[in-house]
Design brief:
Layout: H1 2-31, H2 40-49, H3 51-54, H4 75-84, H5 93-96, H6 99-111
Helix pairs in contact: 2-6, 4-6
The chain binds heme C.
Length: 114
């Protein structure tokens, strides 16, 4: 009787563990190569709106995107390119919306520099 109980609890524990185990693997996959940052708002906006061309590390270069780790633009120039776009890069101002969001992305892009 006691043993049967124990087996049941063990089984339940294993099921619970395998579920949470999978969730952890998925979380890791998504954020695997994201740089560590305090600026999580900027990172989130960047991964959603910029990484498909620039890559999580800024170096992907898809669709002719600039290597952001090698960029030398200052804050004003970054804000302008990000807000209005330049050549093949679409203006992201309308998507980012608030000035605060644009500033967070500008700060995050600078964190990608070496
Ligand atoms: C559709 C692809 C695409 C997306 C999405 C995109 N970019 Fe770009 N980005 C480019 C291309 C292409 C260039 C090069 C533009 C040129 O040749 O003038 C560029 C250039 C830049 C530059 C200029 C770098 C330099 O030193 O000259 C910055 C900064 C930049 N992007 C930041 C961002 C940020 C931040 C986002 C997200 C809010 C973003 N980009 C989203 C394609 C993209």
């Amino acid at each position: 009787m006691v043993l049967k109980h124990f087996v049941w609890i063990l089984g339940a524990a294993l099921v619970l563990q395998s579920c949470s185990g999978e969730a952890t693997v998925e979380d890791n996959d998504a954020s695997e190569d994201l740089p560590k940052t305090e600026n999580t708002a900027g990172q989130e906006l960047y991964t959603e709106n910029c990484a498909q061309c620039h890559g999580n590390d800024g170096q992907l270069g898809a669709s002719g995107a600039s290597d952001l780790s090698a960029s030398t633009l200052d804050d004003a120039e970054l804000t302008k390119v990000i807000t209005e776009g330049r050549n093949a890069m679409p203006g992201m101002g309308p998507i980012l919306g608030k000035k605060k969001s644009i500033n967070a992305v500008v700060d995050y892009v600078k964190e990608l520099r070496k």
